[in-house]
Amino acid sequence: MKPTFDSIYMELAEKLALRSHCTRAQVGAVLTKDTRIISIGYNGPPQGTHNCDEDFHEEGGCPRDSKGSCSLALHAEQNAILYASKNGASIEGSTIYVTLSPCISCARIIYSMKIKRVIYLNSYAAYKGLASDEGVDFLRKFGVDVVAYKDIL
């Protein structure tokens, strides 16, 4: 039986997450359009700056910001979107596959870039101990199709 594109792209997002240098969470993303990959990303500091698992090993990771999140990292979705944009790829109408549902900041970027569909593997709210997935709620409120990967299997 042939694998679906959803399973192929989510499996790739999971593999990409393993490239992350983050010591706390490893997240991968695959940005697609018309069954083609237009960009990939994983979380971590901007290229050419730091690698948290190497440069902040003794400290248990990079410094925290005021909300307790990584102060140096870009999220996987941000990296995928930035790379696609930097290279002139058409992002509008695309689908993004992520191993962790988008946080509210990433959700605003996803919406602003006119990405039409988000498929996520795990819940950001569950990971962070939050009452709800703010990013998912935001995207759904404004018409973006957001689906938990387990719901499409």
- The overall average pLDDT, rounded, is 91
Helical amount: 25-40%
State the helix count.
Answer: 6
Order of helices and strands: HEEHHEHEHHE
What Rg, in angstroms, do the CA atoms define? 15 Å
Summing up helix and strand content along with how strands pair, one would put the structural category as alpha/beta
- Portion of residues in beta strands equals 15-25%
- Give the terminus-to-terminus CA distance: 14 Å
Protein name: dCMP deaminase family protein
Organism: Aquirufa avitistagni
Family: Belongs to the cytidine and deoxycytidylate deaminase family.
Keywords: Hydrolase, Metal-binding, Zinc
Which SSEs are present, and which pair or pack?
Elements: H1 5-17, E1 28-33, E2 36-42, H2 52-55, H3 76-86, E3 95-100, H4 104-112, E4 117-122, H5 124-128, H6 134-141, E5 145-148
Parallel strand pairs: 3-4, 4-5
Antiparallel strand pairs: 1-2, 1-3
Helix pairs in contact: 4-6
Protein name: dCMP deaminase family protein
Organism: Aquirufa avitistagni
Domain CMP/dCMP-type deaminase: 4-133
